[in-house]
Structure formats: C-alpha cells, structure tokens
C-alpha cells in the first residue's frame, strides 16, 4: 500500500524544525540554564532522520550567530552546550560534523572571564546585549546580573508602549540596564534616567548603555547615582519624571522604609503633567519581606493595584512568583 504525504505535512515539519532552531537561538544567547533548552524536541527530530542539517542549523544560530561572535555567553556555557550538541549528534549518526568539533576546539582554547554577555531579542527587531557578572553576588552587590522581575517589567512595557511614548522616565535600581534599554529602543520615551547607587553597578550600567547606544539616539539618556535616603526634593523636581519604574528592589527588609519613603515623595512630587505613574515589579522570594513592603506602603497612604504582561517575550524562570503593581495616592 502506497503512503501519500501531503505538502502540508512537509510545511508543518519545516515549521517545527524552524521553531526548534529559534528556541535554541533565543535561549542560548540569553544563557538560559542548559537543562531548560529543548533537547528532547531535538532528540525527537533526530530520531525522525534529521541529523547533520538540523545540528548545523542550530550551531549557526547559536555559537556561530553574529550576536554570539560579537557578544558571547561565557566560555564554560558554550563548552557545555557544544559538548551536549556533539553528544546528541553522535547518538544518531556515525558521520562526524567537522563544524561542531572546530567550534568546540576554538572554545577550548579560550580563557574564562568573570563577565559574560547575555542577549535578548526584541519583538520590534534587533537585540539588547548586556555584559553581566557570572556570579549572582559579585563585589558586594546583586546588581550585576539581570533578574526575572526586570524581564517581567520589560515584557509589560513592550506590551504598553503608549505608557512611555514621549515621556520622561526615572528608573530606580536600574542594575545592568535591560529594562531601560529595551524601553528606549521600543517605546520612544523623550528622556530616560537610569539610576543606581553601587559604584560597580553604575560602571556596568554605563558600559551596557554605551554598548547599545547606537539604537538610543532618539532618546535623551542619563545614568545617575541616586541615593534613596539622600535624594532631595529639588532633584526629583529637576528630573521631572512622568513615570517612575523599578524592578527587584524589594529584597531586603532593611531598605524597605527608605524605599517607601522615596516612593511616597515621588508620588507627591507633581510634574509639569501632573502626578507621576509609578510601577514596581518584584520577584517574591521572601513573602514576609514583600508583605512588609506592602504594609509600609499602606501606612504611608500609598495604594496599589496589580497589573502585568500577558505575552511571554523573553526566556526566564516562570515558576517564580512575580508581581507588578501600580502605586497611587
């Protein structure tokens, strides 16, 4: 009996392969945990007879991608990735793929650095590439890496560009700069003030803003040191922010009172266009700390409503509880 395969079957198969390659590209360049990459999907495709061509497509869209060549993930990450890719290839064919071994040989010759690059693809096109510390805590701060709440806040911002278009934004605790750079690239604010306090974070932040500056020419961009406890009313008035945002700033109960005091002053600091909009995104690692934050907001007469993105844009751990709130008096 002859089996007939329709053209739609080929189209579906081609689409699935394209999706697998795209997932590898997005997750690899963002340095997602290797065990979260779609290895099982790849294994299924290899079992169906697709081997060298598919492996080569994945190699070209990861280690040999232009973004990776310019702003590579860590040496260790690339080494482990290539070793797993080679293992999967060897499990389904006896023919070696020279490009794989050449790529691994090159990576093995490199020295590891304390920093690496993570890159994120924007829906509007292009990427945001950031230099980050490989250690979660480095040089006495957690501000040298991108945290999940920053990705969550960025997703919401990209869904709601009208909330930022033509406005002046102040970001508290900007860290390595993902949210601000993405907003400047996609939401067309008039002015964006990145801020942080730790000297090394500010240095890294300036590096990343400069790294992506070719796409920020239409926005007035500033990177400033801002001490939440010391910033004056005059300075807040001078910034004249229509919108104030922050991500992952509620992590230490010792700084909650200082943060709440600042947010209260920001809300009372009317700008030329009225009371500013304030949004805070938080990964709730310690429910007690977050509850204390909300309690102190209420004690200061600050109300809140919960919002958040509806579309998944970036690859990150979605098992964490993340909340985005809008503050108002």
Description of the molecule:
- This is FAM86 N-terminal domain-containing protein.
- Keywords: Methyltransferase, S-adenosyl-L-methionine, Transferase.
- With 329 residues, the chain is α/β, with parallel strands linked by helices.
- It has two domains: 7-108; 115-328, Vaccinia Virus protein VP39 (Rossmann fold).
- The protein is 43% helix and 17% strand.
- It contains twelve helices and nine strands.
- It has helices spanning 7-29, 39-47, 52-60, 66-70, 75-90, 98-108, 148-159, 178-186, 199-211, 233-239, 253-268, 287-299; strands spanning 115-121, 127-133, 168-172, 191-196, 220-225, 243-247, 277-283, 303-307, 322-328.
- The strands form two sheets. The protein has a seven-stranded mixed β-sheet, sandwiched between helices. Strands 1-2 form a two-stranded antiparallel ribbon.
- Strand 6, helix 11 (253-268) and strand 7 (277-283) form a beta-alpha-beta unit.
- The longest helix is centred in the first third of the chain and has 23 residues, at 7-29.
- The protein is elongated.
- Mean pLDDT is 90; it is low at 1-12 and 137-143.
Nutshell version of this structure?
One of its GO terms (molecular function) is methyltransferase activity. The protein has twelve helices and nine strands.
């Amino acid at each position: 009996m002859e089996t007939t395969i329709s053209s739609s079957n080929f189209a579906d198969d081609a689409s699935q392969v394209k999706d697998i390659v795209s997932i590898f590209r997005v997750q690899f360049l963002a340095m997602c945990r290797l065990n979260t990459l779609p290895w099982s999907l790849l294994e299924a495709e290899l079992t169906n007879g697709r081997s060298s061509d598919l492996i080569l497509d994945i190699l070209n869209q990861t280690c040999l991608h232009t973004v990776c060549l310019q702003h590579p993930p860590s040496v260790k990450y690339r080494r482990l990735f290539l070793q797993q890719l080679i293992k999967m290839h060897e499990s389904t064919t006896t023919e070696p793929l020279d490009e794989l071994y050449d790529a691994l040989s090159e990576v093995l010759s490199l020295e590891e650095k304390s920093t690496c690059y993570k890159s994120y693809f924007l829906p509007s096109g292009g990427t945001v590439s950031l230099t980050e510390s490989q250690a979660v805590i480095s040089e006495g701060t957690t501000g040298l890496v991108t945290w999940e709440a920053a990705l969550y806040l960025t997703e919401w911002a990209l869904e709601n560009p009208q909330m930022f278009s033509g406005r002046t934004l102040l970001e508290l605790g900007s860290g390595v700069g993902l949210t601000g750079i993405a907003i400047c690239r996609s939401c067309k604010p008039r002015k964006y003030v990145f801020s942080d306090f730790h000297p090394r974070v500010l240095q890294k932040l300036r590096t990343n803003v400069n790294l992506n500056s070719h796409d920020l020419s239409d926005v007035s961009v500033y990177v400033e040191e801002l001490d939440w406890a010391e910033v004056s009313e005059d300075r807040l008035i001078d910034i004249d922010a229509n919108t104030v945002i922050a991500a992952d700033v509620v992590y230490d109960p010792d700084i909650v009172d200082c943060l709440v005091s600042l947010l209260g002053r920001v809300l009372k600091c009317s700008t030329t266009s009225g009371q500013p909009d304030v949004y805070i995104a938080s990964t709730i690692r310690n429910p007690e700390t977050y509850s204390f934050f909300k309690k102190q907001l209420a004690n200061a007469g600050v109300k809140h409503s919960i919002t958040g993105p509806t579309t998944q844009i970036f690859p990150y751990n979605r098992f964490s509880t993340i909340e985005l709130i809008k503050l108002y008096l």
